[in-house]
């Protein structure tokens, strides 16, 4: 028995398009999911998230590659013989069955003895906070309640792995946040792995132990939320997770630091402690997160960027300053609310000088295509 | 505004919307039905028409309590009724057997082919029913196409008696009623949410279990609807047995037609018609019960 609950080996899947040609939804994906892990799949629409889940649950037959669940090669097993359950995006509750029969479905199929079945249905409903609603029909429940029924139904057979395909996307913001926390708690309580699909980056960052960013059927990066946010491996990941200021240019050594010279005449200084270090003259992209900027006065030490302010937005926690450099490059900076006086005077001037710490600048191998796509 | 006036307005709107249909049904359906009901209890006139006198023996002739002074009980009527019932039920079962799997196949075709298939299904409506049935005569008769093929393949040495049998009637009925069964069945199959099928498989159900627990219950309304739409006209049908059953096999429809047009015994014909009516009403009663149970817990629109 390996340590991984799921292993995908070079999983590849292409779909034939009705208008001719094919589209590759999974591009030789390797993925190992740890036991007891909350893994999130994040990516733009159509990047292959659902296809990846379906490859694990068995609704998609891979063209090439293998799926192992708990060490067993299940690539050729039909869905009903895989020890995996799914919470579907639209819940897919059986409309002609009441809540009790929906939740008990897997047990009824397995022929579980009546008394145990009823007791487990009760327990599962209690776990999701719907005790006593056995006799309602799905259409008599609110969206959030239906969501919980779908959850109870998926966990009642004690799967080794739970797959969740954008389960929260239909809920309103407050309910979604409450459910995020409940899901995390539930996962810890059940002690099984969750693979959770979302295209909401905030949701992905808050919930996951690890985060896999997918684009065009390829895993761009898989790591802890913190690492993916702080040290994205390419410009696509950087711009997909969180707001970012990206500066493409050419690298040059300068003392212990690296300077990125952009085409429009900016020089971004990076310390490159850890992470990728470009050679002299190599193409590279510097990433500065908006919250890494600070407002500085004219005689400040360290590197700075001067911008013309377009708009200042107060979000309650902080100020978002939207502006552009003299050459027209857009910049976003986030300044803590306590610096209100400085922000007000900068706003009055219409100009601001933004300082940053070279150690906080992250360098990426230049892959301008991804950045250009995100902007489009 | 108080709820009672709101409800009152709803009611009057409902009246306006349902008014024309109700009036039409009252004049052209209920009135004739009542007339038939009255006729079925009148005494047949000696040379057609009816005498104005209460006369239960029309029913007695069929059901066995006839006063032998006036009418003779003849079990043939009951047996014709039972045969009609049997043929109608077989027709329902056979059309269902053809249409249910076909509906699944067609609902999964690409749109272009789907529309073409639906067009093919409705194509027979464009030709006259009588013409289509006589083509079956050409196929089934002793020297017809079916016997030619069977003989040509040396499967039979003597031509088979295919036409003027119950089998011929059933073949004709199935042929005529397939579109009626297909459309309601197809409508409910097309509506089926396939993500529910996936959910069922995901929860461990194999194909057979998924069919019985999810697919069949969810398409049942179409199956029940189609069965009723086929059963009712099949029970009283007289064209198909007239053409394909000839003088040998008779159904209730032919018997009724004969009483009205041939024997000119309107009261007896009316009594037979009431028998069909009773069977149909019984079926509808169960159908409404079925619908009500299904809709019991539906959110009530007020
Ligand atoms: N059955 C199919 N036939 C043809 N193409 C398909 C099929 N299923 C998916 N695709 C294509 O494969 C690609 C990946 O689809 P997938 O459903 O995995 O995307 P996704 O990441 O789940 O997107 P979303 O966030 O919108 O749900 C898409 O381009 C999609 O159009
Ligand atoms: Mg999807």
UniProtKB/TrEMBL annotation, chain A:
It comes from Ollibium composti. InterPro entries: AAA+_ATPase (IPR003593), ABC_SmlMolc_Importer (IPR050093), ABC_transporter-like_ATP-bd (IPR003439), ABC_transporter-like_CS (IPR017871), Mo/tungstate-bd_C_term_dom (IPR008995), P-loop_NTPase (IPR027417), Transp-assoc_OB_typ2 (IPR013611). Belongs to the ABC transporter superfamily. The keyword rRNA-binding does not apply. PROSITE patterns: ABC_TRANSPORTER_1, ABC_TRANSPORTER_2. Keywords: ATP-binding, Nucleotide-binding, Transport. This is ABC transporter ATP-binding protein. GO terms for molecular function: ATP binding. Transmembrane segments: none annotated. SMART domains: AAA. Residues 6-241 form the ABC transporter domain.
TrEMBL record, chain B:
It is found in: Cell membrane. It is a multi-pass membrane protein. InterPro entries: MetI-like, MetI-like_sf. Its main location: membrane. The chain crosses the membrane at residues 21-42, 80-104, 116-139, 167-189, 210-232, 268-288. Residues 81-287 form the ABC transmembrane type-1 domain. This is ABC transporter permease.
């Amino acid at each position: 028995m390996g340590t991984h609950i799921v292993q995908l080996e070079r999983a590849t899947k292409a779909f034939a398009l009705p208008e001719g040609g094919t589209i590759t939804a999974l591009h030789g994906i390797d993925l190992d999911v740890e036991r007891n892990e909350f893994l999130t799949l994040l990516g733009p629409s159509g990047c292959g998230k659902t296809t990846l889940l379906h490859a694990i649950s068995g609704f998609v037959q891979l063209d090439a590659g293998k799926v192992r669940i708990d060490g067993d090669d299940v690539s050729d097993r039909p869905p009903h013989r895989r020890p995996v359950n799914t919470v579907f995006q639209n819940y897919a509750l059986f409309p002609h069955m009441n809540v009790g029969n929906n939740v008990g479905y897997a047990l009824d199929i397995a022929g579980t003895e009546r008394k145990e079945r009823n007791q487990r249905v009760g327990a599962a409903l209690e776990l999701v906070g719907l005790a006593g609603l056995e006799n309602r029909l799905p259409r008599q429940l609110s969206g959030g309640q239906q969501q919980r029924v779908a959850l109870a139904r998926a966990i009642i057979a004690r799967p080794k792995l739970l797959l969740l395909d954008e389960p929260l996307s239909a809920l309103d913001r407050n309910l979604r946040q409450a459910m995020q926390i409940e899901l995390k708690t539930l996962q810890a309580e059940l002690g099984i792995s969750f693979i959770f699909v979302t295209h909401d980056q905030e949701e992905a960052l808050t919930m996951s132990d690890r985060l896999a960013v997918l684009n065009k059927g390829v895993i761009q990066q898989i790591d802890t939320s913190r690492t993916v946010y702080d040290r994205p491996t390419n410009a696509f990941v950087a711009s997909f997770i969180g707001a970012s200021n990206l500066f493409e240019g050419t690298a040059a050594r300068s003392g212990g630091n690296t300077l990125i010279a952009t085409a429009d005449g900016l020089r971004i200084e990076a310390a490159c402690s850890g992470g990728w270090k470009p050679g002299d003259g190599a193409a590279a992209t510097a990433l500065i997160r908006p919250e890494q900027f600070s407002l500085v006065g004219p005689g400040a030490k360290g590197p700075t960027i001067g911008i013309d302010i377009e708009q200042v937005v107060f979000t309650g926690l902080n100020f978002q300053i939207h502006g552009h450099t003299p050459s027209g490059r857009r910049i976003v900076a986030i300044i803590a609310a306590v610096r209100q006086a400085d922000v007000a005077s900068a706003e009055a001037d219409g100009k601001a000088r933004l300082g940053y710490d070279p150690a906080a600048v992250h360098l990426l191998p230049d892959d301008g295509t991804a950045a250009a796509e995100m902007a489009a | 505004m108080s709820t009672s006036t709101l409800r009152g307005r709803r009611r009057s709107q409902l009246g306006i919307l349902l008014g024309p249909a109700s009036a039409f049904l009252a004049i052209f359906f209920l009135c004739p039905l009542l007339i038939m009901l009255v006729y079925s209890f009148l005494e047949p006139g000696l040379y057609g028409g009816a005498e104005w006198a209460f006369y239960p023996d029309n029913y007695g002739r069929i059901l066995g309590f006839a006063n032998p002074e006036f009418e003779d009980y003849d079990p043939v009527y009951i047996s014709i009724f039972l045969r009609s019932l049997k043929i109608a039920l077989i027709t329902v079962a056979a059309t269902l057997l053809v249409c249910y799997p076909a509906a699944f196949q067609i609902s999964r075709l690409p749109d272009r082919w789907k529309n073409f298939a639906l067009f093919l299904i409705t194509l027979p409506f464009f030709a006259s029913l009588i013409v289509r049935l006589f083509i079956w005569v050409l196929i089934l008769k002793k020297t017809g196409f079916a016997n030619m093929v069977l003989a040509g393949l040396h499967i039979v040495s003597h031509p088979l008696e295919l036409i003027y049998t119950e089998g011929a009637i059933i073949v004709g009925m199935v042929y005529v009623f397939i579109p009626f069964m297909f459309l309601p069945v197809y409508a409910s199959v097309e509506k089926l949410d396939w993500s529910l099928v996936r959910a069922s498989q995901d929860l461990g159900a194999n194909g057979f279990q998924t069919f019985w627990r999810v697919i069949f219950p969810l398409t049942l309304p179409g199956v029940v609807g189609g069965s009723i739409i086929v059963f009712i006209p099949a029970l009283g049908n007289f064209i198909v047995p007239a053409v394909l059953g000839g003088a040998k096999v008779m159904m209730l429809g032919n018997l009724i037609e004969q009483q009205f047009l041939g024997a000119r015994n309107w009261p007896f014909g009316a009594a037979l018609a009431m028998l069909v009516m009773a069977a149909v009403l019984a079926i509808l009663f169960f159908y409404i019960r079925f619908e009500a149970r299904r809709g019991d817990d539906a959110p009530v629109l007020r």
